[in-house]
DNA sequence: AAATCCCCCAACCGCAGACAT
DNA sequence: CATGTCTGCGGTTGGGGGATT
């Protein structure tokens, strides 16, 4: 028990020392006892709420009025709900927070039986969890008011209250939309669901060094618009496991026609990852790729393995039937990024590179990471009025379900290990603590449909909720207006890189370690992660249409 | 099994605004 | 207008307890 004597503390309008007929009463702090609760409850029953300071005078309760009010409001008042928030409540909180921001009391008014403090704690806990996992705070169908109607003064206030987001000085530089095929940071801020789709006409004959062509900038789009769009053509999945067809294939490529669409996700803004990840992620050593530096990006770069998470976990959607549609990632981000992560441990680097890569490549990285707004930095703590991030979960239900996480137990290849790691983080996101261990198994497989010698990676799930976790591919509905259609795969990538160059990004003047050749290698590495689907369903129409990334170079 | 780590949450503090006197 | 009270909010703290070492 802590007793505070005269003059200790200042309770805002009230004090910790209350005059009691000429004397002063030491006010107790700390946890309330049952006896205190009973005194408080009895007083309120008799006198009603309010006038909390008078309570101390009229009872033997040595608590300040503020403490009494808090105790009553948060624990003693009738009709209080106890226990965890229900799914509906969670959804409502997310939606309310999107509308109201950190107006806990107003949010509590919409949640009968719940207190503002409870909601605040829930949100802060959720915030930390999502921050730790690098997940966005809002599902795509929740567009916060302050994003729909940005208020400069409000934003300024938030900045002053240490609520700034990831803005980097560079990001304020104006972009010329016409000069860039992809949205500028400003555009992205107003674009809650941007994605860009590669449109390849003939992947096998594509040339990475194909001259760049103009692209259609992505257009702003609301989640409701997203959800109202018709699903695209089903595509086969190179991520499906030949061994286990029970899991949905990744409809990433369709080789049945010459219009192979696949959409690179624009991953959600990455919050500051846990230090354990930072140490690995930002490992600047030039040692061969291994688990500790497998995905290496520039410090503060929003591009990281999390990109893959957002990108690659989607195909494992439980509800996604095979051959549904291309992955389209709709996000609301302050940046766009595109990453190619090699799974190989040997990766040549040179000092000559296209200028458009300079500002987007991490020289010390063994991977190739490109992002359109490298100037964005990550903030340690997410601001309380978080600028919303919208990820591939197109509605709150999927979003929350995804927060609950999937259970995955084995996977192969380094990139997928990254995916797994993030997935494991998701695994622990829903109430439980994130598991700290994971088990990976490597299952090299022979793809008789594939000409190359790439091993298949088998993805198996020890515990897999096939009913509702993570958004389905059907939920990821692309929109023509927001996709970038390109002629070739290589062109797509090159153009994507070029976009970053045109988007007002700053080159640090360092020589990039990426060359066209390396880019090809990157794509090659990337391709190795997406072997052509050998499942019968994927080859029904054209058995020879397996997409081979090896054909790219 | 014990020590340690880490997460969650009740409770608190400080401040500001609204309102009543 | 000054003062006191109440309320709301952001931020923080510290203990409990589960997970991990």
UniProtKB/TrEMBL annotation:
<keyword id="KW-0539">Nucleus</keyword>
<feature type="domain" description="HTH myb-type">
    <location>
        <begin position="77"/>
        <end position="131"/>
    </location>
</feature>
<dbReference type="GO" id="GO:0080092">
    <property type="term" value="P:regulation of pollen tube growth"/>
</dbReference>
<keyword id="KW-0238">DNA-binding</keyword>
<dbReference type="GO" id="GO:0006355">
    <property type="term" value="P:regulation of DNA-templated transcription"/>
</dbReference>
<dbReference type="GO" id="GO:0003700">
    <property type="term" value="F:DNA-binding transcription factor activity"/>
</dbReference>
<keyword id="KW-0010">Activator</keyword>
<dbReference type="Pfam" id="PF00249">
    <property type="entry name" value="Myb_DNA-binding"/>
</dbReference>
<feature type="region of interest" description="Disordered">
    <location>
        <begin position="340"/>
        <end position="381"/>
    </location>
</feature>
<feature type="region of interest" description="Disordered">
    <location>
        <begin position="425"/>
        <end position="449"/>
    </location>
</feature>
<keyword id="KW-0804">Transcription</keyword>
<dbReference type="GO" id="GO:0005634">
    <property type="term" value="C:nucleus"/>
</dbReference>
<dbReference type="GO" id="GO:1990019">
    <property type="term" value="P:protein storage vacuole organization"/>
</dbReference>
<feature type="compositionally biased region" description="Low complexity">
    <location>
        <begin position="236"/>
        <end position="264"/>
    </location>
</feature>
<dbReference type="GO" id="GO:0045893">
    <property type="term" value="P:positive regulation of DNA-templated transcription"/>
</dbReference>
<keyword id="KW-0805">Transcription regulation</keyword>
<feature type="compositionally biased region" description="Low complexity">
    <location>
        <begin position="340"/>
        <end position="357"/>
    </location>
</feature>
<feature type="region of interest" description="Disordered">
    <location>
        <begin position="532"/>
        <end position="553"/>
    </location>
</feature>
<feature type="region of interest" description="Disordered">
    <location>
        <begin position="136"/>
        <end position="290"/>
    </location>
</feature>
<feature type="compositionally biased region" description="Polar residues">
    <location>
        <begin position="361"/>
        <end position="375"/>
    </location>
</feature>
<dbReference type="GO" id="GO:0048235">
    <property type="term" value="P:pollen sperm cell differentiation"/>
</dbReference>
<feature type="domain" description="HTH myb-type">
    <location>
        <begin position="24"/>
        <end position="76"/>
    </location>
</feature>
<protein>
    <submittedName>
        <fullName>Uncharacterized protein</fullName>
    </submittedName>
</protein>
<feature type="compositionally biased region" description="Low complexity">
    <location>
        <begin position="155"/>
        <end position="189"/>
    </location>
</feature>
<dbReference type="InterPro" id="IPR009057">
    <property type="entry name" value="Homeodomain-like_sf"/>
</dbReference>
<keyword id="KW-0677">Repeat</keyword>
<dbReference type="InterPro" id="IPR017930">
    <property type="entry name" value="Myb_dom"/>
</dbReference>
<feature type="compositionally biased region" description="Low complexity">
    <location>
        <begin position="208"/>
        <end position="228"/>
    </location>
</feature>
<dbReference type="GO" id="GO:0003677">
    <property type="term" value="F:DNA binding"/>
</dbReference>
<dbReference type="GO" id="GO:0090406">
    <property type="term" value="C:pollen tube"/>
</dbReference>
<dbReference type="InterPro" id="IPR001005">
    <property type="entry name" value="SANT/Myb"/>
</dbReference>
<feature type="compositionally biased region" description="Polar residues">
    <location>
        <begin position="190"/>
        <end position="207"/>
    </location>
</feature>
<feature type="domain" description="Myb-like">
    <location>
        <begin position="24"/>
        <end position="76"/>
    </location>
</feature>
<feature type="domain" description="Myb-like">
    <location>
        <begin position="77"/>
        <end position="127"/>
    </location>
</feature>
């Amino acid at each position: 028990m802590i007793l505070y004597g005269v003059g200790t503390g200042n309770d805002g309008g009230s004090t910790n020392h209350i005059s009691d007929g000429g004397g002063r009463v030491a006010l107790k702090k700390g946890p309330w006892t049952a006896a205190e609760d009973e005194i408080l409850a009895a007083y309120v029953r008799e006198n009603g709420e309010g006038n909390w300071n008078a309570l101390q005078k009229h009872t033997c309760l040595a608590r300040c009025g503020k403490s009494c009010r808090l105790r009553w409001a948060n624990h003693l008042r009738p009709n209080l709900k106890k226990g965890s928030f229900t799914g509906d409540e969670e959804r409502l909180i997310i939606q309310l927070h999107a509308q109201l921001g950190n107006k806990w009391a107003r949010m509590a008014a919409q949640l009968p039986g719940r207190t503002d403090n409870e909601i605040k704690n829930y949100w802060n806990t959720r915030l930390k969890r999502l921050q730790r996992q690098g997940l966005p705070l809002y599902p795509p169908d929740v567009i916060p008011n302050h994003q729909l109607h940005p208020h400069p003064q409000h934003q300024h206030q938030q900045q002053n209250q240490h609520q700034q987001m990831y803005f980097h000085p560079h990001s304020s530089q104006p972009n010329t939309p016409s000069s860039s095929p992809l949205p500028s940071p400003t555009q992205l801020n107003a674009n809650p669901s941007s994605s860009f789709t590669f449109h390849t006409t003939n992947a096998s004959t594509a040339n990475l060094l194909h001259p760049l062509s103009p692209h259609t900038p992505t257009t702003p789009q609301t989640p409701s618009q997203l959800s109202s769009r018709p699903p695209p053509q089903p595509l086969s999945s190179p991520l499906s496991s030949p061994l286990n067809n029970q899991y949905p294939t990744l409809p990433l490529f369709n080789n049945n026609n010459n219009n192979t669409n696949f959409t690179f996700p624009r991953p959600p803004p990455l919050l500051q990852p846990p230090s354990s990840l930072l140490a690995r992620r930002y490992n600047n050593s030039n040692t061969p790729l291994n688990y500790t530096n497998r995905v290496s990006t520039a410090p503060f770069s929003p591009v990281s393995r999390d990109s893959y998470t957002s990108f690659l976990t989607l195909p494992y959607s439980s509800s996604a039937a095979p051959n549904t549609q291309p992955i389209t990632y709709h996000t609301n981000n302050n940046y766009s990024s595109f990453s190619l992560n090699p799974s190989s441990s040997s990766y040549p680097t040179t000092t000559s590179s296209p200028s458009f890569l300079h500002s987007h490549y991490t020289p010390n990285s063994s991977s190739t990471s490109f992002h359109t707004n490298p100037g964005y930095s990550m903030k340690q703590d997410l601001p309380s009025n978080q600028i919303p991030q919208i990820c591939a979960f197109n509605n709150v239900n999927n979003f929350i379900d995804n927060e609950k996480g999937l259970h995955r137990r084995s996977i192969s290849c380094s990139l997928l290990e990254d995916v797994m790691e993030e997935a494991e983080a998701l695994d622990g996101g829903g109430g439980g603590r994130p598991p700290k261990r994971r088990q990976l198994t490597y299952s090299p497989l022979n793809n008789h449909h594939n000409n190359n010698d790439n091993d298949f990676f088998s993805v198996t799930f020890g515990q897999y909720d096939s009913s509702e976790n993570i958004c389905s591919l059907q939920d990821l509905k692309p929109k023509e207006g927001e996709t970038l259609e390109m002629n070739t795969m290589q062109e797509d990538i090159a153009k994507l890189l070029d976009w970053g160059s045109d988007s007002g990004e700053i080159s640090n003047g360092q020589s990039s370690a990426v060359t066209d050749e390396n880019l090809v290698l990157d794509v090659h590495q990337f391709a190795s992660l997406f072997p052509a689907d050998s499942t019968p369903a994927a080859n029904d129409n054209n058995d020879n249409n397996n997409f081979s990334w090896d054909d790219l170079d």
